């Protein structure tokens, strides 16, 4: 009974963190779509739009390294709350008159937003490790998949929200409404989050931010190229292509990408069933290798169809949907593996290092997305995406392979 009550209290704390993460994710997705569409309308080139997100991704890399260390020393409640208030400040920076929205100013606001986003992600992903017993790996996989999938579904809703708000109330009205809502969430979080959540028993040194685990280092490298492969064509090239080449308006671009992200999140939530959890299996390195191979075929196929002019619109949109589904499974597999590999004490250190690699992949993909699209078009972006995924496949060969005892999967926590 005592154990059940203790677990229930932990779960309540985790639900608070998850709610914060969801609210943040909604504003983060909306802000990204607002910036891409608004500044494209103002006449910014694809490369200039990509550069607006440069600091967002650079500071994401730094934040994941330092944030994991801070979470282990200070507690995940503090890193979560710092992330929320920084996002409010970032949004407030964009409320200045349009004449003051220079590239450097917007990049600075995006830098704060990048710090905020990765503090929130690290806090949420790290906390789940503290709730599930070591032997319940199947449950750990399920919970990670649900958290990750629901987050991405809300990010998709944010894309739609951003495109819709931009059309209805304009850029500044949309940003102001989101800042006010997130400020209220932050005030609630200050009251509800427990102060010692996620503190390491042994205070880590700053040098501990770099992982000493071979498995985590290999997984982090695979993650970097996996997310670089997505963002090199999805972040800037695709929305600009849909807007400029297909003449889609803001509602259509934001709505379509929102539906894509929501579907992507739903598939992530079901990833444990797709990859065999019901049969008493949880993923290992071989599973990650197989799904990365399948994913690499998709951008190559889309690129070929576009270059050969084989039903270009159907090939692009259908290929994007297929890419989203298979990418979602890859992402969910990786998210489970990092939480599984991470040490129990100071879990945020390992998770932070891994998401540093994730942010590095996004940084590389974002910059290349604008530059390659501007120089050579969407097909070139898809070819680079294929190359990155092939690197992910090769790196995944080094991930550990293991057998799981069935009872560990079919625990009472599932």
Question: What does this 3D model show about the protein?
Answer:
By secondary structure, the protein is mostly helical. It has one domain (2-198, 208-406): Growth Hormone, Chain: A, CATH 1.20.1250.20. Helix content is 79%, strand content 0%. The chain has 15 helices and no strands. The chain has helices at residues 2-41, 46-52, 54-74, 76-93, 103-129, 137-168, 170-192, 214-234, 237-244, 250-274, 285-307, 312-341, 347-376, 378-396, 406-409. Helix 11 runs antiparallel to helix 14 (378-396). The longest helix is centred in the N-terminal third of the chain and has 40 residues, at 2-41. It starts with a helix and ends in a 5-residue tail after the last helix. Mean pLDDT is 78; it is low at 1-7 and 403-414.
Largest sheet: none
CATH superfamily caption: MFS general substrate transporter like domains
CATH fold-level assignment? Growth Hormone, Chain: A
Structural class: mainly alpha
Distance between the termini: 18 Å
Question: What proportion strand?
Answer: under 5%
Number of strand elements: 0
Q: Supply the number of helical segments.
A: 15
Over all CA atoms, what is the radius of gyration? 20 Å
